[in-house]
Amino acid sequence: MLFGKHFAKYYIKYALFFLAGIGVLVFVDWIQLDIPKLVGQIIDNLDSDSADVSAIESSILRIAVLAGMITLGRFIWRYTIFGASRRIEYNLRNAMFGHASNLSQRYYSQEKVGGLMAYFINDLEAVRQSFGPGVLMLVDGLMLGGFAIYRMANLNSRLTLFAAIPMVILTVLLVYIRKTISAIFKKRQESFEKLSDFTQENFSGISVVKAFVREKKEAMFFGLRNSDLYEKNMNFVKYLIGVNIAISLGLNIIILMILLFGSFLVIRTDGTGLTPGQLTEYISYFFTLIWPVMALSRFIQIQSQAKASAARIEKFLDEEVEIKDLDDALHIDNLKGSISVKNLSFQYPDGSEDVLKNVSFEIKAGEMVGILGRTGSGKSSLVDLLLRTYNLSEDQVFIDGYDIMKLSLASVRNAIGYVPQDNFLFSDTITNNIGFSYENPDEEFIKESARLSDVYDNVMEFKEQFNTILGERGVTVSGGQKQRISIARALAKNPEILILDDSVSAVDTKTEDAIISNLHRVRRGKTTIFIAHRISTVKKMDKIILLDQGRISAVGSHKELMKSSELYQDMVKRQTLENLVQGGVPIEGLQR
Predict the structure, then answer these.
(1) Residue range of the domain that includes 543
(2) 163 or 530: whose pLDDT is higher?
(3) Assigned domain for 325 exists
(4) Are strands 527-532 and 416-419 parallel, antiparallel or unpaired?
(5) What is the reported pTM?
(6) Distances, alpha carbon 519 to alpha carbons 167, 189, 259, 489, 512, in Å
(7) 214 and 293 share one domain
(8) Helix (H, G, I), strand (E, B) or coil at 344
(9) Mind listing the pLDDT tens digit for each residue in 155-190?
């Protein structure tokens, strides 16, 4: 049984289920032992010179009634005990998923998704087994075993003592091997985690595998991991089989000794022996006792596996939630979208130096702002902080004058629509991807958002149109289509602050212009922030914030920066030359 802080509470929550199930189980264990007694009485009655037919009929009727009660009782304890274990599994899975949703980016940068899935599948199943079959086998083993030994002792105490000594030795050996079973099972789980992670990663990157003709190599590496899991599974199964064989051998030897000694007692004529019916009853009790021994053996196996899995789940659930609301966090539902950054410096938790250094700027509500900079200048890091993906010091970032660290996460994130660089899409319909913010998205509203992101015509070309199911991570659509569906999803939310992180890099300049023009039209009065590396993306913005090596290099409109910023001028020249070489159109404003 599991009593860690994440598990013990469920015994209390489902106490009625467990108490009712255990009560019925104990009752069934007691009454089922009446059957061997009745069978023994029938045998002795038949063995006598004057058989009492009415007594035999009465015994048979009682056996039939007991069988009916046992059947009903077994249904009840299965429903209550196993039902409770399923409910606990359900609650634990929800708790694990909720905790996983609250963990920080840092955690997921260190842990692999495939490995985490093992917690939700194999480990959770092992824990459920402890709450269901584990509880059953512990209670059933102890109670049924105790009742059987009690009745055996009443029939013949010397024979019972003779049989009990090897049974006790067998039980002690089972307890001794418990740690070994737990260690072997833990290695098996770790091997499964590695295989699961490798498989998930390969399927997610299947296009890369195919592009580099790595199918055979990856299949070979998969085979190695699969062989390791097979070996660990076989070691685990072989060990359990060995234990079960040893138990069965020991029990059979004890049964043989009971038959020999019991037969001797039957043929004794001094009045201290056993009748044939009593020997039959005694052997029936002992056969009944075999199940408790096997049950306790199985309980030890289940408990050993569950303890190993519970330790892994507890470690996961104990992982600190770093990004969370303060106790007195402010809940503001109508943020307008003004942003103020004052002397912001930031270093990633696993970093060694600041990626943002003394950054300060203002964005008024309703402004359309571009944030520009070379690779590694800190653009995406700034977005992470606006979304409260990481913690930062107080009095550095403000929304509508409120310190972002004092606002609730829901207040901040409800006010922001975000289009990430990776343009993640769910394996669902296009409608549900675009309407992700809503329980029941309006079809016309979804289509209008698709028109604004210039993806409507592409979607209508699909056979199922907006009901098209996208492959995992949106693999069935092109990079440009993924970007535009992601933009449509953010527009459908209609947030006060819209952040697009390099979100038009995979589309041509004509499509880019169409999307930006639509945003100027529909986002009037709402704050829009474009993170970009192309000048063409930000040149028509109200304001451009130029970052360089984590610092603010310049702030102003395209025309102002063309006059005041050498870095901006250099970026314009380089990109204009690239466009000319590629046959593109020069960036307007190159000549001062």
Answers:
(1) 339-415+495-581
(2) 530
(3) no
(4) unpaired
(5) 0.70
(6) 80, 50, 90, 14, 11
(7) yes
(8) strand
(9) 777 777 777 777 777 777 776 776 777 778 778 878
